[in-house]
Design goal:
Belongs to the insect chemoreceptor superfamily. Heteromeric odorant receptor channel (TC 1.A.69) family. It is found in: Cell membrane. InterPro entries: 7tm6_olfct_rcpt (IPR004117). The chain is mostly helical and about 375 residues long. The chain is built from twelve helices and two strands. The longest helix is centred in the middle third of the chain and has 45 residues, at about 180-225. The termini are far apart. The chain has a two-stranded antiparallel sheet.
């Protein structure tokens, strides 16, 4: 029996090491994305994050994108075709959103690295050693989902949007002084840069979000095991360790909320106009597949953030419920006091907030969608 237990332990440690190796490889890719956002692509001088030449290059590039798209919006004001007006406005708002998000992420690059390092350290942290099975299972699931979504976005989004604009003869990013065929080449480059920037920024947020939800699931799995005497005996873990882990998770959740508060604000402010523009284009041209694709991108981007906010809220709410459902009445007085402190900490669920005021959850998504429907109806009523 001890031999079987040792073999099982070795297999668990091997699986955890494989999971940690996979996470490290993925972590390096995320670091590369952050380096691109912060213009720090040089390995010889990694501290030169805000190198003047790189900052100037990125500023000029995105300045050209904003000016090109803004010029397109101004030129389309006198055109009666509402398709060009709606598409131009949609991409102008989207371009501004991308620029703001990039600068918001670049300002917090070091803090994001620290949070990613903390997530990676859970694989090797001695205080989490008795939770190897939970860590390996949950992190493997999180890594799988993140990779699938990012790969799908990178393959489909830029190529699909550029091809659609070329086939429909739609010029969203004009460049004065260039022939029309060369302007489409510039537009393919511009759309590629904008969409890749959106995917990079959202990938950083989404990656950390998936792993934070995974950590919450790990903690909930351990709470469910508190009623198992064999688990408590084999793990040699008392409730004070649970309290420290709970406190550590809540601190990191607040750090995550502060890091991405600016990103959530701009997402909240721009999502409603983008959804309105998407509805408007579908209502004008219901036969065009491109309208549905653009709308799916606009609403999907906001929905992913709201779903993550809902997950965080529900998981932190579940902590209190699961603690209450333990056999606390069979615990010692000391453990009951620690459990009571944990329940007091968990009695108010944690919610992601934009600007520290507006909660990001599925209720916010439904309200934004309803408002977009109403505004779109008003636009057609006064048309």
């Amino acid at each position: 029996m001890p031999l079987l237990w040792k073999k099982s332990q070795r297999s668990t440690e091997g699986a955890l090491f494989t999971c940690y190796s996979n996470y490290q490889q993925f972590q390096r890719k995320i670091y590369l994305l952050i380096q691109i956002l912060t213009c720090n692509v040089s390995h010889s001088n990694p501290n030169a994050i805000y190198s003047l030449s790189r900052r100037f290059l990125v500023t000029v590039l995105f300045g050209l994108l904003v000016m090109s798209n803004g010029l397109n919006v101004l030129l389309k004001l006198d055109i009666e075709d509402l398709w060009f007006k709606a598409a131009g406005l949609l991409f102008f708002i989207g371009t501004l959103q991308v620029v703001y998000k990039m600068f918001a992420i670049s300002r917090s690059a070091e803090e994001i690295r620290d949070l990613l390092e903390w997530i990676g350290d859970l694989h090797t942290n001695p205080s989490w050693a008795h939770l190897k099975n939970f860590v390996e299972t949950r992190f493997r699931e999180s890594l799988l989902y993140v990779k699938r979504i990012i790969i799908l976005s990178l393959i489909v989004t830029p190529q699909g949007m550029s091809l659609n604009m070329f086939l429909s003869d739609t010029l969203i990013y004009p460049m004065p002084g260039l022939p029309r065929d060369q302007q489409f080449i510039w537009q393919i480059f511009a759309v590629f840069i904008v969409t890749i920037s959106v995917i990079v920024v959202d990938s950083v947020f989404m990656t950390m979000g998936f792993f934070i939800v995974g950590i919450l699931n790990i903690f909930l799995d351990t709470i469910a095991k508190l009623n198992s005497k064999e688990f408590v005996r084999s793990s040699k873990c008392n409730l004070q360790d649970y309290y420290q882990k709970h406190l550590e998770i809540m601190v990191k959740l607040r750090d995550f909320d502060e890091l991405f508060s600016a990103l959530l604000v701009i997402q909240l402010l721009t999502s409603c106009p983008l959804i309105v523009a998407g509805f408007f284009m579908i209502r004008l041209y219901p036969q065009m597949i491109a309208c549905y694709l653009v709308y799916a991108v606009c609403i999907g981007q906001y929905m992913l953030i709201c779903i993550f906010g809902e997950f965080v809220h529900s998981k932190t709410e579940q902590i209190f419920r699961d603690l209450y459902l333990t056999k606390w009445y069979k615990m010692s007085i000391k453990d009951q006091m620690v459990l009571l402190m944990m329940m007091k900490m968990a009695i108010k669920p944690f919610s992601l907030k934009a600007a520290g005021m507006y909660e990001i959850n599925m209720k916010a998504f439904v309200e934004a969608t309803k408002l977009a429907f109403s505004l779109c109806a008003l636009l057609f009523a006064f048309d």
